[in-house]
Design a protein that fits this description.
474 residues; 17% strand; rod-shaped; Helix Hairpins; alpha+beta; Heat Shock Protein 90; Beta-Lactamase; five-stranded antiparallel β-sheet; five-stranded mixed β-sheet
């Protein structure tokens, strides 16, 4: 059954029960009031009879203001015979006979039917003028009251049926007005299931429970649309990554295969040519290894986050500096490392800083100085190379991007992409700019804080460098 119909039925049933209770109370109150008037008139005449004492031919009456004398009067003698009957002959039962013989005193009221007449009868014990006990029966008709009550029942029944009908109609109308936003929600859900279109929104009619439902449904659609856009972007990025990786892998693989085929031909090769080919094979193998490693690093960065820990960023930078000095001894690295910490993954942060230092050493002439700064703003690496062409600045951190100044140099074009990925995973941003005096400045803005109770990291950096040298000599 539709919800609107159920709400209409519930409204009709609720109103019907309320009207039924009100009608029943009204009916019984009116009935009791009308019957009490009859009872009061009968009791008033009985009181007048008792005040008189002995009763003669007819009992004393009461004034019209008190209801007037009873319409029907009958004496019942001790032998059970009726005498002095006025009007209808009233029924005589065993209780009346007991009162007539004097075995039972007092009075009682009862409803009796004589033919088509419905009467309210009072029976009481009296003493006749000759001293004999008898029973006096006074009766008043209830037909008029029954007619009034019948009309009242009809009116109340019509009121009940009409109230239920009006309540059902109003309930259906109200349900349609109240549930129309729910219908819009259902239509929106059906539209989404049929078309996968998440752009539609539900109009909020009022700030009530249904309005709150519409607001939350719209919010859910916003999140779903954002999640799907993010998923679509991720799929496009993965496809682009696969396409770019295939393109980048094709050149070294083709060159490597060509060199190997030449070596396998077994012809007479000059030793210098053989050495050059083998050197090319080694270089291309290293290039492939670096490219595969960078691809794995990028793929690992797209996976759910690794468990983090508090990391001394200055110490991670010091270890990266020791590695950079070993790999590029012709470059002077000048550190300024303040003790700072952040919540992160030390291996990923170290990889990002390593890539920045490798990039700076590749683009710096021999004997140049590279400044490395770690402070409350994050990490800053400044080289003294030729800088980044202005047209290339927006694309430096893109995957497989090779600027005009990088062509001809070894590299996969993924190092700076990894830098940006790691920085964003640590809730930071990566940026690049050209220094006024020459060279490029790479900055990693990270949410770092001072390391309490820690000294400077230059000593730690020197100890790390010494340990690296010692391990190299061994």
């Amino acid at each position: 059954m539709p919800l609107r119909r159920r709400l209409a039925l519930i409204a009709a049933a609720s109103v019907g029960v309320a009207i039924l209770i009100a009608a029943a109370v009204c009916y019984f109150v009116v009935r009791d009031e009308l019957r009490n008037e009859v009872n009061s008139a009968l009791n008033a005449q009985a009181t007048e009879v008792r005040r008189t004492g002995q009763v003669g031919q007819a009992p004393p009456g009461i004034p019209a203001s008190a209801g007037g004398p009873a319409q029907y009067v009958q004496f019942v003698l001790a032998n059970g015979l009726a005498r002095h009957t006025r009007g209808l002959a009233l029924p005589i039962d065993a209780r009346v006979r007991l009162i007539a013989t004097g075995e039972r005193r007092g009075l009682y009221l009862s409803d009796v039917h004589v033919g088509d007449n419905h009467l309210r009868m009072l029976t009481m014990s009296v003493t006749l003028v000759n001293g004999e006990p008898a029973a006096l029966q006074l009766a008043r008709p209830l037909n008029g009251i029954d007619g009034i009550l019948a009309n009242l029942r009809l009116i109340l029944m019509v009121l009940l049926v009409g109230g239920i009908a009006v309540a059902a109609a109003l309930g259906r109308f109200a349900a349609r007005r109240v549930l129309s936003p729910l219908g819009e929600v259902a239509q929106a859900a059906q539209h989404i299931s049929e078309t996968d279109d998440l752009t539609g929104r539900i109009r909020v009619h009022a700030d009530d429970e249904v309005g709150q439902l519409a607001i939350r449904f719209n919010s859910m659609l916003d999140r779903l649309e954002g999640s799907r856009d993010a998923l679509d972007d991720s799929v496009r990025a993965q496809r682009q990554l696969v396409a770019d990786a295939s393109h980048e892998l094709r050149t070294p693989v083709t060159s490597l295969r060509t060199n190997i085929e030449v070596l396998l031909e077994g012809g007479e090769l000059d030793p210098e040519d053989r050495r050059r080919l083998l050197s090319d094979v080694v270089e291309q193998s290293e290039e492939l290894s670096a490219l595969v490693a960078d691809l794995i690093e990028l793929a690992r960065g797209d996976q759910p986050g690794t468990a983090t820990e508090y990391v001394r960023l200055d110490r991670v930078a010091a270890e990266s500096l020791a590695r950079a000095r070993r790999n590029a001894p012709e470059i002077t690295f000048r550190p300024h490392l303040e003790p700072v910490v952040l919540d992160g993954v030390p291996e990923r942060l170290g990889r990002a800083i390593n890539n920045l230092l490798d990039n700076a050493s590749r683009h710096s002439p021999p004997g140049a100085t590279v400044d490395v700064t770690v402070d409350l703003e994050g990490v800053c690496v400044r080289d003294r190379g030729s800088g980044v062409p202005t047209a290339d600045l927006p694309y430096v951190f893109d995957r497989f991007f090779r600027g005009s100044g990088s062509r001809g140099r070894q590299g996969s074009g993924l190092g700076l992409a990894i830098v940006r990925q790691v920085t964003e995973q640590h809730r930071g941003t990566a940026s690049v700019a050209n220094a006024p005096s020459g060279g490029a400045v790479f900055k990693l803005s990270l949410p770092v804080s001072p390391a309490t109770g820690a000294g400077t990291s230059e000593g730690y950096e020197r100890d790390s460098e010494a340990s690296e040298i010692a391990r190299t000599r061994v």
